[in-house]
Every structure is written in C-alpha cells, then in structure tokens.
Amino acid sequence: MTTLEYIERYKVICICRRMSKDDLMKLAHALFDGGLRLMEVTFDQQDPNCCEKAAEAISGLCREFGEEMQFGAGTVLSIEQVDAAKSAGAKYIISPNTNIAVIRHTKETGLVSIPGAMTPSEIMTAHENGADYVKLFPATWLGYSYLKDIMAPISHVKLIATGGVNEENLAQYLRLGIVGAGVSGRLTDKKLIEKGDFAEFTKRAAGFVSIANAG
Fold first, then answer.
1. Sorting pLDDT into bands at 50, 70 and 90, what band is 140?
2. Residue 178 DSSP class
3. Peptide bond just before 138 cis, omega within 30 deg
C-alpha cells in the first residue's frame, strides 16, 4: 500500500507535539491498539535543535513499528526540515502554511506533501504546485459552512481538516468529502498522559477509527 493509499484508507492522523520519547512511544502503541495507523511528529519551532529531536523521534517510531504504522513530520517550515524528516523515515510532510519551496522539495524527495491553507487562493496555490493533499487549517474555527462553500468550486482538491476535529464533527466533515483529518487534543490529552492512562487513548482511537470507517 502506498502512502497515499494509506492516508485515504485510515484517514485519521494523530498530531503529536512536545512529547518525551517515552510518552510518544507509549502513545503510539496505545493508538495502534485502537486501530489508528497514522501519526505526525511535529517540529518545535521554538527549539533550535528541533530538526535532530524530531528526526530522532520519527526514526525511533519507524524502527518500532516498521510498516505497520506510517509516520510523518509536522509543522515543517523549511527545506532543511524536509530533509531531516526524510532521513528519519517520515513518509509525509505536513505544514501549517503554503510554502511553494517546501512543497516542491517534498515532492522531489519522494514524500507526500500536505501543506496548510485557509483561503481558496491558498488552497489552489498549494494544489497547483504539487501538493498531494491540502490541510484546511484551522478547520473548526472556519466552520462547517465555510468548508461546504469552498468545496463546491474546488471539490477536485483533496482536503484534510485539521484544528478542533473530534468525535462529534468528524463524520460531518467526512460526509462533505474530505479525505482525512488531523487530530490533536482528543488523542494527545496531556492530563491523561500525566496520569499514565494510555488505555483511554486506545478507546478514543477506536472511536475515531469507527467513525472513519463508517464515513
């Protein structure tokens, strides 16, 4: 299965930010047990060592899971970060913005490109420069009506909704025709991690997977 097929089959990408390697690994196993197969490890742009730290985390996850999960890099803002993610084994590159240089370099390195966009012009700029998917961000803040309106004229662009996606709104977005969603809060709740309640993440992952499969 190609990465494109993987994303469209499993739909839900867990977004992991600022987590220790130990917690990240525990979370990955918990989500895997719930049926989730896509995880994004973000670059912490405030950390000058974010390239090596994110690459190390991605590399460790890839070694642990092999082809059973597919990992990507998130908050990728530069060509240097694309290369770091590629060397670590990332399969897809996700950004919060539309950076043409990053999109083109991602495609040149053979990775899947998922830049972020908000307006129709940004979405089309990303699409026309080779993006495989466009991350609509922030999806929930923009709202269902906004998403429905922009999908009418640009339904040929494959969108991934990110920002505030949860069990209550995922099915609604999928019915509109989005191909997937990026999910953070519900699948990376810091309070649950502090308590060590990874079983709850397995339960939540299973809930998202069930909705994705039904959609």
1. confident
2. -
3. yes
Cβ-contact 36, 12 below 8 angstroms: yes
Q: Quote the pTM value.
A: 0.96
| Residue ranges of domains in the chain | 3-214
* Active centre residues (catalytic): 40, 135
Given a contact cutoff of 8 angstroms between Cβ atoms, the answer to whether 17 and 42 are in contact is yes
Coil vs helix vs strand at 164: coil
pLDDT at 28: 98
Q: Where are the beta strands (DSSP E) in 45-170?
A: 70-74, 92-94, 112-114, 116-117, 134-136, 159-162
Confidence of residue 41 (pLDDT cuts 50, 70, 90): very high
Contact 179, 159 (CB under 8 A): yes
Phi and psi, residue 169, nearest 5°: -115, -10
Answer whether 73's CB lies under 8 Å from 44's CB.
no
Widest Cα–Cα separation across the chain = 46
Residue 34 is encoded by which pair of tokens?
């719930």
Look at phi and psi of residue 97 and say left if phi exceeds 0, alpha if psi is from -120 to 50, else beta.
beta
What six digits make up the tokens of 7?
């994303």
Tokens of 61: 């996850």
Task: Count other C-beta atoms under 10 Å from residue 169's C-beta.
Answer: 17
d(C-alpha 114, C-alpha 123), whole Å: 11
Which tens digits make up the pLDDT trace of 48-58? 888 899 999 99
Superfamily name and number for 3-214: Aldolase class I (3.20.20.70)
Residue 84: Cβ within 10 Å count: 22
